[in-house]
Each structure stands twice: as C-alpha cells, then as structure tokens.
Specification:
The protein has 282 residues and is mainly α. The protein contains 11 helices and no strands.
Length: 282
C-alpha cells in the first residue's frame, strides 16, 4: 500500500495563493460598499462649487456681517494668505508624521494582539484605556516627554490616529474564512506563511479604510495640539485670527485644513486602487 506524503509549505503554491486571494476577497465582500474617494472627481468639484455658490448667495441675501460669516469672495480677497500658507507648511509636516506613526503603531499592535492571546489580554485593555483618556489630560505628560515643538503635535496626532487603525486591522485579520485557514492547516503551513498568504491580504482593505478615517483625524489631532499646547500651524492661526477679529483669515485657515484632509483622504484612496486592484469595486 502506497503511503501519501504530507503537504509542505510551498509544495502547492497555487493552492496557497488561491486561498490568500479568496480570503482577501471574502473579507472585502463583508466590508460592504466602499467610501467615495477619487472616483468621480468632476462630481465632487461640482458639489463643492455649488456649496460655495450657496454660501456666497446666502451671505449676500441675508446680509450676514463679515465678522460673523464672511462670503467666500471676501475670504479670497482679504485673508492673509501669506500667513495661511506658512501655517499650512507646518501643519502638513506634522500631519504626515502623525499619520504615518499612528497607522504604523496601530498596524503593529493589531498584529501582536491577533498573534498572541497573552499579548491580547495585556495590550488591548491598555489601548482601550489610553483611547479613553482625553488628549487634554495627556497634554502635560506629552509636553514633559517630548517638549514643545513639532514632535509634540506629531505624538498627539498619532494618538488620535492609532486606535481606529488598530480596530480595523484587527477585524480584518480575524475576518478570514474558516475554509482558508483549514486549507493552510492541511498544507502544513507555518503561522508566518498563514499571515503572509491569508491574514494580511484579508486585512489590507480594512487597513486602507482605517487610513481614510485617519486622514481627517490626523489633521484634527495636529490642530488640537496647536490649540492646546501651541505651535506654528493652522490651529494656532485659527485662534490668533479669531482673537484679533481677522475673521477672513480664520476662515481661510479652516478651509485650508479641510483641503489638507481631503487631499490626504484622496491620496489614500488612490494608493488603495493602485496597490489593491483586486479590492476595487464599481
């Protein structure tokens, strides 16, 4: 009687790859409809133009004073755009740093929690506790640890960003179909191979969803740090312009922060479509 030899990792690369792709596509289906991104830019521009037109006409018709709500045309012509551009440079650098650090920390922590029940019982409660503490309460400790400067705003942004990434990636890692995991077991694959071929592909769509959520959160985190602790970016400019009654400059800074968040959101969506073409849905 001829004995069958057990499968080894790599002995059936086609099956392993198929299992990984099937698991990723299954997780993608359960994820539901994707958020709108760069798809239909003409429609997005048209909606934005219509909103600005309504804003302009509404202010003119109601006679709203400029110190309460200036019209878009007044913002364009009277705002201190030099100060706005300088503030944008500082905020963008901090946003990119906090965005990268927060997402990297959330992704790494999700891998650790999903890989080890012991680490999950220790790290997950700590992450929940940290998320529940207001940033205002943490500000003195962050200042003592990192001082006042760009590093501080990056840390605050990273703290705000990392938790959504942790939750989304963890759900993605745990959303693999049982059949795919059973196939990996039959093929006698090592845990590293299971993660590389099955779990990580299944988690990537959720990771990009988390980064889309993190885009405006990172901008909010940086501006919050600049409001509370100080800085040279858009958050400080909004406060100083409001205190000096430079309403048009204040609104110009607010609109600039919205533009930064929208651009980062669109870049993440574009990266997903380039790196995960199999996850794209129409």
């Amino acid at each position: 009687m001829r004995m069958q030899t057990p499968f080894r990792p790599g002995s059936a690369p086609g099956a392993v790859a198929s299992a990984g792709k099937a698991a990723a596509m299954s997780a993608e289906k359960r994820r539901g409809p994707s958020l709108p991104g760069v798809r239909g830019p003409a429609t997005s521009i048209a909606v934005l133009a219509a909103a600005l037109a309504v804003w302009e006409v509404g202010v003119r018709v109601t006679g709203t004073p400029s110190y309460a709500l200036p019209a878009p045309s007044e913002i364009v012509t009277t705002a201190d755009w030099g100060a706005v551009l300088e503030a944008v440079k500082s905020t963008v650098l901090a946003v990119l740093g906090g965005f990268a650090a927060g997402n990297a920390a959330g992704f790494a922590l999700a891998l650790l929690i999903s890989a080890s029940p012991v680490l999950a019982s220790v790290l997950y409660p700590l992450a929940l506790t940290l998320r529940a503490i207001p940033v205002v309460a943490l500000a003195p400790f962050i200042t003592l640890a990192f001082g006042r400067g760009a590093t501080l705003t990056i840390v605050v942004a990273a703290l705000i960003v990392f938790f959504p990434t942790l939750i989304n990636v963890l759900l993605g890692l745990r959303s693999v179909e049982r059949e795919a995991l059973e196939l990996m077991h039959v093929l006698n694959c090592r845990p590293v191979t299971v993660y590389r071929r099955v779990r990580l592909p299944a988690a990537m769509p959720a990771f990009f969803d988390a980064m889309r959520i993190a885009a405006p959160s990172a901008v909010l985190g940086v501006m919050t740090a600049e409001w509370i602790i100080g800085g040279q970016g858009l958050g400080k400019l909004v406060i100083t312009a409001a205190l000096s009654l430079e309403t048009t400059t204040m609104w110009a800074a607010i609109l600039a922060s919205s533009l930064v968040a929208g651009l980062l959101f669109s870049l993440v969506t574009l990266a997903e479509r380039l790196l995960l073409p199999w996850a794209e849905r129409r």
